[in-house]
Write a structure and sequence with these properties.
This protein is α+β, with helices and mostly antiparallel strands. It is built from 15 helices and 58 strands.
Length: 954
Amino acid sequence: MKLKPVLTIYLFTCFLFNVQQSYAQERLSDGVLFEIKKQKETDAQWIKIQVLTEDIIHVIGSPQKTFSSHRSLMVEKTNWEPVDWYMHENDNYVEISTSKIKVRVDKNNGAITYLDSEGEVILQEKTDGGKIITPAEVMGEKTYHIQQLFNLPAGQAGSPEDEAFYGLGQHQNDLMNYKGHDVDLWQLNIVAAIPFLVSSKNYGILWDNNSRTKFGDIRDYQSLSSLKLFDKNGNEGGLTAGYFNDGNFNSFFSSRTENRIEHEFLDVNDEYPEGFNLNGGSVRWSGEIECNEPGIHKFRLYSSNYTKMWLNGELVVDSWRQNWLPWTHLPTLNMEKGKRYSIKIEWIPNGGYIGLKYLTPEDEKYKNSLSLYSEVADQIDYYFIYGENIDEIVQGYREITGKATMMPKWAMGLWQCRERYRTQEELLSVVKEFRRRQIPLDNIVQDWFYWEEDKWGDHEFDLTRFPDAQGMVKELHEKLNTHIMISVWPKFYVGTKNYKLFNEKGWLYKKNVEVGQKDWVGPGYVSTFYDPYDEGARELYWSLINKKLFSLGFDAWWLDSTEPDIQSNLSREELIRRIGPTALGSASRYLNTYSLMNTKGVYDGQRLTNPDQRVFILTRSAFAGQQRYAAATWSGDIAARWYDLKAQIPAGLNFSISGIPYWTTDIGGFAVEPRYENPNEADLEEWRELNTRWFQFGTFCPLFRVHGQFPYREMFNIAPDGHPAYQTMLAYDKLRYRLMPYIYSLTGMVTQNDYTIMRALVMDFGNDKNVLSIGDQFMFGPALLVNPVTEYKARSRNVYLPDGSGWYDLKSGKYFEGGQTITADAPYSDIPIFVKEGSIISCGPDIQYTDEKPADPIRLFVYTGSDGSFTLYEDENVNYNYEKGIFSLIPFSYNEKEKTLTIEKRQGKFPGMLETRTFEIVWITKEKQSSLGFISKPDVVITYIGSQQIIKME
């Protein structure tokens, strides 16, 4: 039959009920409401499907017809333009279709199947209990646990071998592709929890829930005592725990049999043997384990300081972590029932923490499933987003949760920071040294503790160390051409002026105060955090930092500890008690959203106070929607180790796929092993090389930021002038600034076109299945393939050149065919970087800061071999006039067949725009190999006045 748009033929809603199939449907203006007869008590009875666009579907599954009244915090857009959609049904299902997708709802069980316009299945909910809504009580609140299960076509780890899963925020597990793995979305220092999952099959699921969420296996890890344990002599009952007086496992103290290892938290811990020196000793657990269920067993080792773990004779963990931030390792072991496997853990605690738990093999019925679970909910609520590529999926996410704002141009330059500049004089002297040495720099950062010791939260400088903060900022701006960001926490010491202001209004979390929890500063001070879920509290918070800091001229906000990390090393249950209740509800319900609300308050406040100054916020955590509040995220207090450098690459790539475009890391790592604090010659050279390799990687992150604990992180403090570390970092810093026209144009693409700057290879080469799990290479914009070096003393590395394009070595200009793995040179001075053929890279003059002078001339490097295009974006750099359309675009396009570069007519204008400018064109071909350089003469020089020009390659 001929179908017509629902909006045309249904001018009213109607309700139909089919007794035989026990389902009902109510047609709505934007979708359909279904009532489904429950097959299980935990099934959803009511399902609402809303057609928001041709490729975005909103699904709600509820145990009752009255849907939740809790407003979504992640969602910004609630009024959608009507879209044509069609509906028909047969005996088995109701089908809702747009021009892009079809949505089928099974009349018997409510299971939803998503299909493309050709009828090919994209994704399908499980028909036997795909929506699980289980009554529960969490921290005293009556609620539901919810789980959504999707069937995936049979294949390795559930889905086909050519499907991969990405996103979910930023995690420290060194994984690019989450297929077959578990991800726990709980906002923590070094973890950013964003419940947005993206498939390489070009669909995404935005999971609208604020509480603890799990992708994959939803079970909690069990005590090690659930396994059969044998000591080193083969006796059943536990492992042999050997305690030593020294840190080298030599001076024996005592031993005993232990059936679990649980020393993880401040508030919940097993006892050590009496008299054991936790700060100077060491522990070795050894023996064997045996299981009752065959299959892959998962282990969760949580530890700080130096830890090694062996399973069945294989070293599976070799780590160091600072004691105030232990971290998790998740090794696995395929075990046969009744067979014993050796296990050994060696730990040098230095006052730290350790725990080991495990999980039995996952139930077979979940192995071919995609699972999303949340701890606290009223209903299942998610958005299905479909597109031609992952860029369109990200665009759909931002359409729902808000567009990313333009960052100020200076934010794209180098950020120099350390923990911490202790005085005004010290901070200024560092910037002056950058300028003296002519090291390009845009931003200096004042980290925490600029206040008097007992005045945390009053936002006032200690005048003995910072006698004139306003004068300091003025000197940075007017004499040193440098911007400054300042650290502001949501933390207040009891008894401070600002504590009293918040306390009078009831806008503080009280539990931390009630227990008298002291922090690590001086003798220890009792503190708590404010509640940003109350609008009045957000307004007060802004008014205080506006009066004390913004009025002094500070340019940017470092909103630290926004998880919120009210006290390190608490058990998770106790942590939740300390950070609630919020003004909107329980801490469990709103667990992952603190940073979203905190950034909202600061963003809204500054936009009202100074509408002409772009906001820049840096946070240690992120949630869906945070991009609309000018918030960038860094990867937290990671360790300064090679493993951590490597892990940051997939962490940043998955974060970027999650829809928030501005991300960075502490170049060099934050927390430092003791061997680097007073290093011997060998350790010093490793330290220098680690920082150099990290700096090379950081050059191509969306934000370029150096930070960390002692040793000091300025490049001139890392190595002397003549050392290759110093020379390399300086060269890469200068390269970043040369690339500024390219980089700032990418930021324009982010805001205008929902672009992503730091790009997993799957975003541009999705048809090449070899790239699906590559997590140590990425595209920086459309042109540059970046391949960081993450091993000490490595002077080459394998590089996969994606299929579908040819590639030029940036350094030599040598051409390579795509679809192959090569061994690329990686001398100390360089990481391998390749340019995609058809690329047009715009580079500016040699500058010391981003607005030192206009980007003129611009040198255009045209990498021939394929058609290509790029658009130069420019505006006023610091204000919001771009929101009114005040900016300019100059499109470039290269035609391979005609061998021509077309510079199109300029679109738009802005105050201060260069009406006439110079473009220097450099052709790079397979025959004419050339590096991206600035000394040699260009092939063509063009004077451009805004009209189209076509340049023929000779």
